[in-house]
Amino acid sequence: MNPDLIILADAVHTMEDWTPGRPAPQAVAVQGGVIAAVGSREDAAGWPAAEVIDFGAAVLTPGLVDCHIHPVLGLELTRGCDLSGAKDLAEVRALLRAEAEAVPSGDWVRGWGLDPNVFGSAAAHRELIDDVVSGRPCLIRLFDGHSALASSRALELAGVTGPRAFEQASEVVCDPSGRPTGLLLEAAAVELVAHLMPAESFDERKARLAELFTLFARSGLTGAHVMDCGEGSLELYRALENDLDGGLPLRLRISPWCMPGSGEQDWRRLAEQIGLGGKRWEVAGIKLFVDGTVDNGTAWLFDPDVYGESVAPFWPRPEEYAAAVRFFAGRGIPTATHAIGDAGVAAVLDAFESLPPAVRSVAPEAVHRIEHLETVPDALIERFSRAGLVASMQPTHCTHYSRADQSDNWSTRLGSERANNAWRCADLRAAGTTLGLGSDWPIAPFEPLPILADAQLRRRAGRPGEQPVVPGQALTALQALEGYTSHAARAAGEWVVSGSVTVGKRADFTVFDVDPLSAAPDDLADAQVLATFVDGRVQHLAVGAVR
Fold first, then answer.
1. Interatomic CA distance for residues 545 and 146, integer angstroms
2. What is the mean pLDDT of residues 472-482?
3. Is residue 536 part of a domain?
4. Would you list the DSSP string of 276-287?
5. Could you write out the DSSP letters of every residue in 356-386?
6. Are residues 126 and 211 located together in one domain of the fold?
7. Claim to verify: residue 385 and residue 284 sit in the same structural domain
8. Residue 361 pLDDT > 80, yes or no?
């Protein structure tokens, strides 16, 4: 063995069983982008290497992977004023007023990350923003990414004067007289207005994407499961990989959307994209939706929410969703389905449980997933564990947007019983389910260390005064780390090549200045990522990280 690189750290968490009686690993050798050896510092002294990097008392783990993220879509969703920190309507209005004054006259005013809790008991309405933007066109994206609030002028420019019919469960919300309130629910409705806004140039988008990927690497990420593939996405990845020395700083596993109103001809076109890619990015799955969000009233519940909403599936004819599942599963193509409400999760389980044995046997290694699973009763937990589906969840959706006293919009809509079934991470793990974790950025921040902390705390890290939300669903430190490493690999069907520090697997690593398995969660959230490696090549190295 003649490794290209040896990495030393006082602790290496391999995320697989280590042979009892052997010294705790402290050294990893890399050759040709894969792990060539794992052992002690004494072992490493006998490995002739071209380069040695010693991180001293640091801790090395497999590279962290975000299991649900939207890099390119996020570029569009995060244009304009960041409203995610606004705590009430007055603060939202002040931020929008400042944004309107800052952008040139005649330009659109944009905002994003709006938490519906700022409206209190009032309904979101264009009249709440018209005056502060001085009658200009304005579109504000709500935090969930599934809805937006448009100003009166924006609706006028779009010619939106009343209700519209769509192929999917979208809505132009109107008052009793039939006039639009400005609230637009789901992508088809939002796009009525959004398509009018000037688009960034390709070069502008590429520059922003490069900056975003740099931030991902600094945060500890070495990979991401990308849950969208909009127009120009693949061209951006290809151009950026060609421009950057050494390629992209993290691996991307991409899943284009399959939407209602599509048929077999559309599905074939999607299937033809599978396998497209470059050195560190690949189209490797399909993303579907069966519902929207609880906060919008577009989730799919067995029983209506407190406002009589959230009872309609995203596919108006759910049997067409099941047909799409059969089409992709029958071709060995992995799927990931957005399902938030209990009826939505049940519909996905129904679709997969009804697959004929011949379809299931086409590619038993193809992984099928459910994304989000925000409120799930006991009976579905039991079915989930038998179905062999993977769960993909986002702990900070719980800790950022719901409250222990259930006074938030999400809990109020659902009522106490369903709110007590919130984000059942621990129960899914206890049932033997593979559980991948992620951020869903830009819906919530992408930094993985606070997410690992929140998964254990069931409250926001750094806020010890907050009460945890359904604390019995907290993950252990090991389970949380598995969600970003070993279980993330299994959620992608990539356990053979990634997810643990094992000889023959990819040399993707994250290096911490604390031990993520023993540090207090609040301390972990504030810890420093010393380095990330992809293919054994440094993608981020903090100043002073090397001994």
1. 41
2. 98
3. no
4. -B-SSEEE--EE
5. -HHHHTT-TT--EEEEE--B--HHHHHHHHH
6. no
7. yes
8. no
Range of the domain at 412: 65-71+202-495
304: domain CATH number?
A: 3.20.20.140
pLDDT over 90 percentage in the chain = 89
291 within 8 A of 309, measured Cβ to Cβ = no
Residue 184's DSSP bridge partners are 148, 172
Phi, psi torsion values for 400, nearest 5 degrees: -90, -30
Asked if the structure places residue 45 within a domain, the reply is no
User: Is there a domain that residue 526 lies in?
Assistant: no
Q: What pLDDT digit, counting tens, does each position of 492-515 carry? A: 999 999 999 999 999 999 999 999
| CA–CA separation, 183 and 510 (whole Å) | 42
Distance, CA of 74 to CA of 228 (rounded, Å): 10
- Residue 330's Cβ-count burial label (10 Å; 0-12, 13-18, 19+) is middle
- Token pair 């957005």 is found at 338
> In this model, does residue 443 exceed pLDDT 80?
yes
Assess contact for 190 and 145: CB atoms under 8 A.
Answer: no
Domain co-membership, 310 together with 248: yes
Structural domains in the chain (count):
2
User: Residue holding tokens 């579907």?
Assistant: 288
Q: What letter represents residue 200's amino acid? A: E
Q: Which residues have a Cβ under 8 Å from the Cβ of 179 and sit 6 or more positions away?
A: 161, 162
